[in-house]
From TrEMBL, chain A:
Its main location: nucleus. One of its GO terms (molecular function) is mRNA binding. HEAT repeats lie at residues 648-686. Residues 845-1079 form the TOG domain. PROSITE patterns: HEAT_REPEAT. Belongs to the phosphatase 2A regulatory subunit A family. This is TOG domain-containing protein.
TrEMBL record, chain B:
Transmembrane segments: none annotated. Coiled coil: none annotated. Belongs to the SF3B5 family. One of its GO terms (biological process) is mRNA splicing, via spliceosome. This is Splicing factor subunit. Pfam families: SF3b10. GO terms for cellular component: precatalytic spliceosome; U2 snRNP. InterPro entries: SF3b5/RDS3-10 (IPR009846), Splicing_factor_3B_subunit_5 (IPR017089).
Length: 1298, 87
């Protein structure tokens, strides 16, 4: 070894010398190039863990873009149409889970604990509750303790802080004195402190953060389960530290049911699982937890973030080993199921990486290096090994972890992607369901279970069916749950349902179904729900703040049903402790829930309670929540607060002077909500708060002031004119002061209040003009306001409202100059305001000078615009020109010049806008008698018909249409005969906008000026139009069909009809349908007799499509012509006869609907004979089962009821009402029922006389004497002979005396 | 109800029909229907004043009495319901 040592020493020596030699030289390096000290600073020190940001879009990376081959510009790439979400375009469904769309605040619902059931004072009467039941007193005591703890913690924290400040001050005096101890303490202090508690609590255990049992005492609650709690205190502490409001967790463990025997029963397990969810929110490493803590709930929820793979790691790393090693408790089974394939892969992959990167051991190094010539050196003293706790945690603790790569063993026992076959026809289970339904997989013999366990199992089965089953399964399961609710018992039911609703992976649909289950079960259980009210509320309350409207409605419904079932007293008892909960989330949801209770049980019932809460001396939180309840009531039930307005206001009014700022704020907001709900009534109820409000605005600042102003803003509109004016003047001083506030929220509220004040009756225009306007414009009409969208809106609205009071000139005069401002957003804001003001109030107040300025400004703004997506400039221009009317005449040449110039612009957008402007101002140009100018514009537009951008072409066509509409066909230039042939090829254009405008224009010409165009041209257009029947947009198809009518009118129906009838042969259904409509329209415009012969002749074509088309045309035709149908009904009857007897279903269906329209059209016009004849053909079809056919048949019969009278149809009906075959009876009763609903009174005259048949004979009938019978004839032959049929029968037994 | 019209308008239609008292169904017996018919008839007589007047003249009673009688008869127009065999 010596030689080796010597060699090493030598080498080290040499290196030292080299380094020493280099050291001074390094200065001579070109420092610009070799800046030795920090040349790595631009490098990434670590490989980014998430590779989404950096490399997501290679095109964004400058270098990558330059290196890449030629590609499309980035703007285009970014603009690539994607189907909404990226995932969807890839064929993946967007996540349906509720948790994925929730924000952090809403996610706090998962921190709530489903509280154990409570004592039901009503059920147990005067008996003393058993010690283990939780009574109201217990809960209140717990709540008080919790609050006290919170306060103590706060005090401790404050003292600690003070002390630290003192210490820091002290340290300055004697630096570096207590460094180490200080450091150690610091860690501890972030949570809770010691020094004072030490004195108070006498124990010194505070100083030992770990493994002291004493800490448990912090959590101690008077419930019995608490003592036995043996959770390692460290993990508890960790959780404590993360969440500033602890105690929830501790509580959950303290439940008598769960805490005492955690996990012994499945129910206990579920209990235990839930609180862990709260642990989840804080991704602390959970290494030290006991196995019980690691219920799959933790894992399931760890998945989304993947934040704590370590926690999920343990159970599933070696799926075979881990599970097999453990005793086969239900928990183990759960574990096996709960790990998802992705998780599994992730874990395996991670483990693999870990294994590869693990430091080499000495043995491995020995095997790698030769034995000779190497020596193990001491690490230099400066060396510190890397200690990354995270990595340590990730190290595999499993005994079976293989160090190197091993060929993954194929596990035939597990198929992760194939849902397991469920025993007993149960629906599939998702991995996260195993936790709740895993017990169903145990193939136990049901007989052996205790009745309670059987019940549990039954509930689980039914719930699983409701949650994951097919619709029929779900329906029956739901019904069973409902029917057996009382039998199964409230406790077991809710213990199963509610944890499911807290599942973090819940989806909307599942939640909806489960909520539905609760709703149904509530109805049945009624007062039995009492002990579970709070539990249910914990789960349902979050629905009230869900962003989905329907979820909110659902939540409201449940809570209102719950309060009806449990009664007010129970509801209050359940929710009272939450009112001053330390968690704001709980208070917020409780307030909302209370408002629902109020709307369900009536406000008066809740008033005394609310009054007490709002005056609570104990905590400001209670007052705050109480007042918030009032606010929520107002929002929820709107104007229905009016009867209770005064008492509600009285309850909360003292809050305006509360010592707590939050209470003052919420009081003002509640008053605002009440005033908004009550508007425009109820000012007298607010009398008592006016003074404090108006005094308040003088003494408050910031948020509170904003709330007060908001309340005032809503109250002023309720006042009488005089008072409104007085109070507005009072508040205006403050408002004007706050005009300058830099706070955005304040700005919005101020603008809103100004709007509300100004729109009130009593506020005079002069006052606004003199006192408000100058400051208003100085502070708000600035460029900055145009940049924020919401400010922009509010400012425009408020200004328009002011304009309604003070008139156009004042407002427009002030801002018209700004149309030439250099900021485009600002110009747009000005333009929008002017547009709205002028559209509201007209332009009659604008004097010539202002008019000039206005037109000038508008022209400037219009020309200078660079981007106008919302068409603000265009709309503004149109509105102003239309408002000015004839006064625009002098400016028209200038405007037209601008338009012409812009029509020739390079940018398509500009051309389009110019064309659009023409269509806006065409009417005004006509008013100004500028027809020559319009003709000129027409020619210009005509020349631009070669436009290639479809959007622009569409606008040009629209402009032409506007001109044609205004100046008429005869005066149009270019003449119609030139214009139309130019339009024919454009009809081929497939762009929607082009099609729509073009067909409108052609239709207009066909309507008004068909004679200017030769018939051949029209025929050509007819062919083009057929294509347009395929259009997607309904408007286009409708316009096309109408155009057919116009053209047919112009050139006679024959040719058009031939074209259309030929089109019936095409394959496309939509096309045929539109053709049939067109035929019907042609028939309507040109009288049916011109069309019917050809149409009926076409029926002879032996082709289904054609025949159906003909029938459909007939159907539409009779629908359109209505009464006119009486002349044609006899003509088409043979055809319909044939169709109604056809084998083809569609024939009969269509013919039946034709019969319906016919019958409805000719009702009361004396065609009964033909109709009865047709009814005889329709009637046999009543046994059809195809939904469309049976619908059509039933409607035809309904039509007959109208046309022939109910009695006739009743007589058809009577034969089958008591038919021996049920199928027949069913149909006949259906017809009877619709008859009954349609014409009940008319049936009285036609009811049959029921003869005496023994004991079921009506009394009146057997009461001897001269009962008058008029029999009804039901023989088949007579039904056939229509006219004799209407012989009615009266049950005239009451006329005995006659 | 057949599978075909479980999801179409017909099912809703039947639901709607079921809401009216006087409507019937396939399992209705003669007696139940007769009761409906009688009640409908009496209701119609009472509802149409001319009919009431007509009966009043025929039976030589006051109109009010007629109305009262009809209403009374609506209670059990066909006597007590017969015993049902199937129950």
């Amino acid at each position: 070894m010596d030689p080796v040592d010597a060699e090493i020493a030598k080498t080290q020596e040499e290196r030292k010398i080299m380094e020493a030699a280099l050291a001074p030289n390094s200065i001579t390096f070109d420092t610009e190039l070799y800046d030795g000290s920090n040349r790595f600073q631009d490098y990434n020190r670590e490989i980014p863990a998430n590779d989404d940001e950096e490399n997501a879009d290679a095109m964004d990376n400058e270098v990558a873009r330059k290196l890449a081959s030629y590609t499309a510009p980035r703007s285009l790439l970014n603009d690539m149409p994607r189907g909404g979400d990226d995932d969807e375009s890839l064929g993946f469904k967007k996540s349906q889970r509720i948790i994925d769309r929730e924000d952090d605040y809403r996610r706090r619902r998962l921190n709530q604990v489903i509280s154990p059931e409570r004592h039901d004072a009503f059920a147990n009467g005067d008996k003393t509750p058993k010690p283990e039941t939780r009574t109201y007193a217990d809960i209140m005591r717990e709540a008080a303790l919790k609050r006290e703890k919170e306060e103590t913690l706060k005090v401790i924290a404050r003292r600690k802080k003070e002390e630290e400040e003192n210490k820091a001050a002290g340290k300055e005096r004697e630096p570096a004195a207590t460094q180490p101890s200080q450091k150690r303490r610091n860690r501890w202090d972030q949570n809770q402190d010691n020094s004072d508690a030490k004195k108070a609590k006498s124990g010194s255990d505070w100083d030992m953060p770990d493994s002291t049992p004493g800490i448990g005492r912090w959590d101690a609650t008077p419930t019995p389960g608490r003592i036995g709690d043996a959770t390692p205190s460290l993990s508890r502490k960790n959780r404590w530290d993360e969440t500033p409001t602890p105690g929830r967790l501790a509580d959950s463990d303290a439940t008598p049911a769960g805490g005492a025997t955690p996990g012994a029963t499945p129910a206990g397990m579920a209990w235990d699982a839930t609180p862990k969810l709260s642990g989840l929110a804080t991704p602390t490493p959970k290494r030290q937890r006991s196995r019980w803590d690691e219920t799959p709930a933790t894992m399931g929820s760890a998945t989304p973030g993947g934040a704590t793979p370590a926690a999920a790691y343990t159970p599933g790393v070696t799926p075979v080993g881990g599970v097999e090693l453990a005793t086969p408790t239900p928990g183990a089974i759960n574990l096996r199921g709960a790990i998802t394939p992705e998780q599994y892969n992730l874990l395996r992959w991670e483990k693999d990486i870990e294994d590869r990167n693990r430091p080499l051991t000495d043995e491995e190094l020995d095997t790698m290096f030769p034995q000779e010539g190497y020596k193990i050196l001491e690490p230099p003293p400066s060396y510190v090994p890397i200690r990354t706790p995270a990595r340590k945690l990730l190290a595999t603790p499993t005994p079976l972890g293989t160090p190197l790569y091993s060929i993954p063993e194929e596990n035939r026992g597990q198929h992760f992607d194939v849902p397991k076959e469920m025993p007993g026809g149960l629906p599939f289970m998702k991995p996260e369901d195993y936790q709740y339904f895993g017990a169903l997989l145990n193939e136990e013999d049901e007989e052996e279970l205790s009745p309670d366990e059987q019940k549990e199992r039954k509930i689980m089965k039914l719930l699983l069916k409701v949650k994951n089953g097919t619709p029929p399964q779900r329906k029956t399961a739901l019904r069973q749950l409902t029917d057996k609710a009382r039998e199964l018992g409230a406790g077991p039911l809710f213990n199963r349902i509610l944890p499911l609703l807290m599942q973090p992976t819940l989806e909307d649909q599942e939640r909806h179904l489960l909520v539905k289950v609760i709703d149904r079960v509530l109805y049945k259980l009624d007062e039995l729900v009492r002990p579970y009210v709070h539990k249910i509320l914990v789960v349902i309350e979050p629905l009230l703040i869900d962003e989905d409207y329907y979820a909110r409605v659902e939540g409201r419904e449940i809570i209102s049903n719950l309060s009806k079932a449990a009664g007010l007293a129970t509801m209050i008892a359940a929710m009272r402790p939450d009112i001053d909960n330390i968690d704001e989330y709980v208070r917020n949801t409780t307030a909302r829930a209370f408002s629902v209770v109020a709307s369900a049980l009536g406000i008066p019932a809740l008033l005394p309670f609310l009054k007490a809460v709002c005056q609570s001396k104990k905590s400001w939180q209670a007052r705050h929540t109480g007042i918030k309840i009032v606010q929520q009531i107002a929002i929820l039930i709107g104007c229905a607060v009016l009867p209770h307005l005064r008492s509600l206001v009285e309850i909360i009014e003292h809050g305006l002077n509360d010592e707590n700022q939050k209470v003052r704020t919420i009081t003002a907001l509640s008053l605002a909500a009440l005033a908004e709900a009550a508007a425009p009534y109820g000012i007298e109820s607010f009398d008592s708060v006016l003074k404090p409000l108006w005094k308040g605005i003088r003494s408050h600042r910031g948020k509170v002031l904003a709330a007060f102003l908001k309340a005032i803003g809503f109250i002023i509109p309720l006042m009488d004119a005089i008072y409104a004016s007085y109070y507005t003047k009072e508040v205006m001083v403050i408002l004007i002061r706050e005009f300058q506030s830099p706070d955005e929220e304040m700005k919005k509220i101020v603008l809103k209040v100004v709007k509300q004040c100004v729109s009130t009756e009593g506020v005079e225009a002069d006052y606004i003009r003199s006192d408000i306007l100058p400051e208003f414009f100085r502070n708000f009409w600035v460029r900055r306001m145009a940049l924020d969208r919401r400010n922009y809106r509010q400012l425009v609205d408020t200004t328009v409202e002011i304009a309604n009071k003070v008139g156009v000139p004042d407002i427009v005069g002030r801002i018209v100059e700004d149309l030439k401002d250099e900021s485009e957003p600002y110009r747009r804001m000005v333009m929008e305001t002017i547009e709205k003001v002028v559209a509201n109030l007209g332009a009659s107040d604008i004097d010539p000078r202002l008019e000039e300025l206005l037109i000038d400004g508008i022209l400037y703004a219009f020309q200078e615009q660079t981007s106008d997506d919302a068409n603000v400039m265009l709309n503004g221009f149109g509105a102003v020109v239309n408002a000015l009317g004839q006064r625009v005449k002098p400016y028209l040449p200038q405007i037209c010049g601008t338009i012409k110039w812009r029509l020739n612009n390079k940018s398509a957008k500009v051309r389009q806008q110019a064309a659009d402007l023409i269509s806006r101002i065409a009417v005004v140009m006509k008013q100004c008698q500028e027809e020559q100018l319009m003709g000129h514009l027409g020619v210009v537009l005509y020349e631009y018909l070669g436009e290639e951008y479809p959007e622009v072409l569409g606008s040009i066509l629209g402009a032409l249409k506007a001109i044609v509409n205004v100046i008429g066909m005869t005066k149009m230039t270019p003449p119609i005969k030139d214009l139309l042939p130019r339009l024919t090829p454009i009809l081929k254009n497939r762009h929607e906008k082009v099609q729509e405008n073009c067909i409108d224009l052609v239709g207009r010409i066909a309507d008004r000026g068909a004679e200017f165009v030769p018939a051949r041209e029209w025929m050509r257009i007819c062919f083009e139009l057929l294509e347009m029947l395929k259009a997607h947009k309904k408007g286009i198809r409708r316009a096309t069909v109408n155009t057919f009518g116009y053209i047919a009118k112009a050139i006679g129906p024959q040719d058009v009809l031939a074209t259309l009838l030929n089109n019936l042969k095409v394959q496309e259904r939509q096309n045929r349908v539109c053709t049939t409509v067109a035929i019907a329209i042609v028939a309507e415009t040109c009288s049916p007799f011109t069309v019917l012969p050809a149409l009926m002749n076409e029926y002879r074509v032996p082709e289904l499509n054609v025949q159906n088309g003909v029938l459909k045309s007939l159907s539409f035709l009779f629908e359109y012509i209505g009464e006119m149908g009486k002349d044609y009904i006899y003509a088409v009857t043979p055809l319909l006869e044939d169709a109604l007897m056809d084998r083809d279903l569609v024939h009969r269906q269509t013919a039946a609907s034709a019969v319906k329209h016919m019958a409805l059209g000719v009702a009361g016009l004396g065609c009964e004979d033909a109709l009865v004849h047709l009814l005889n053909y329709v009637w046999p079809n009543i046994f059809e089962t195809s939904p469309h056919v049976i619908n059509a048949v039933m409607e035809a019969i309904e039509g007959m009821r109208v046309a022939l009278g109910a009695a006739v149809v009743l007589n058809y009906c009577l034969q089958g009402l008591f038919h021996p075959a049920r199928k027949v009876r069913e149909v006949y009763w259906k017809i009877y029922n619709s008859l009954y609903i349609g014409a009940q009174d008319a049936l009285v005259a036609a009811y049959p006389v029921l003869e005496d048949e023994g004991e079921n004979v009506p009394k009146a009938l057997c009461k001897g004497g001269s009962v008058v019978y008029m029999s009804c004839h039901l023989d088949d032959e007579e039904v056939g002979k229509s006219s004799t049929l209407i012989t009615c029968s009266f049950p005239l037994e009451t006329m005995n005396g006659v | 109800m057949q599978a075909s019209d479980r999801f179409n308008i017909n099912s809703q239609l039947e639901h709607l029909q079921a809401k009216y008292v006087g409507t019937g169904h396939a399992d209705m017996n003669r007696f139940e229907w007769a009761v409906n018919i009688q009640r409908d008839s009496y209701a119609s007589y009472v509802g149409h004043y001319p009919m009431l007047g007509y009966f009043a003249i025929a039976e030589n009673e006051s109109i009010g009495r007629e109305r009262y009688n009809f209403m009374q008869k609506m209670l059990l127009p066909c006597g007590l319901p017969p015993e049902r065999e199937d129950e």
